[in-house]
Input
Amino acid sequence: MNVGITWKLPLTWSCAKPPFYANRFLMGSGYERGSIAISLQSSHSHEWHLDQFNGCKVEAVVFQVVPWYVKVYYHTLKIFIDGKPQIVSDVVENMRISPSEDKVSPGMLELMLRFPCNMQSASLVLDFDKGFLHIDEYPPDANQGFDISSALISFPNFYSNRTYLIDDSLTQSPLLLEFQEENIVQSYTEVLLVPLTTPDFSMPYNVITFTCTVLALYFGSLLNVLRRRVGEEERLLKCQVEKTALLPLLLSRLVSKFKRQNRELSQSSSPSSSPSRGHKLILKAILVAVAAIVYFYLLNDE
Output
């Protein structure tokens, strides 16, 4: 999409080039702490303005707002000019600070700085700690990071304005008069992307399953101990042993009875009737043995 504005009145636009190019970036690693650095590089556009500055100084106003979860330590402010550390009071003419309040308001820092005219580069460094958010406060793309809005750097001695070439009644309108006023040259830095500690969003499910498993094991063992009767296991084992020993006892009694009857029959019966009676006794013994085996298996199934 190509969007443009066309002025019906011819005008001239004059804007002084800012004396410094501003950049902002993060330093440090990890999810606990870091540093915010603002770098100023000379654009060599203020050399012809040197006679306008008091004591050959270039003024710059730095204004930045940081969210509450970026806990900036303002007392750690360090200033470097051309790579050399400077005393803060020698460079900072005025400072206004509004500390952040957790989950209520962001922090604000405004500095009025005076740099030497022959300065080539300057750096401002502030240390900060990364806060912790509640799990409900994270956006859907929490792993991407959190944005810190751009810092605004103003140069009070550099102005921009518009001038209309035609003296017409239209130029007397309040809106056009507002456009003709001089405005301070301002520069915006980059937006910072701060990575914060991101929780495992599946952790609530893991905690619930782990807790339920522990409770199930605990109450299962507790109910088992409470419902167990004293001596129940010994009684069941004794019954099982008695059922197992019942079949040999029945078989031994059956064999002894069969031998006794066989002797009695052999002594008292005649030779003609002894074979038939012997077969009957054998059949009875087999039936009793089968009944004992069936009874034994039925007891084991129970």
Q: What stands out?
A: The first strand starts at residue 11 and ends at 15. The mean pLDDT is 78.
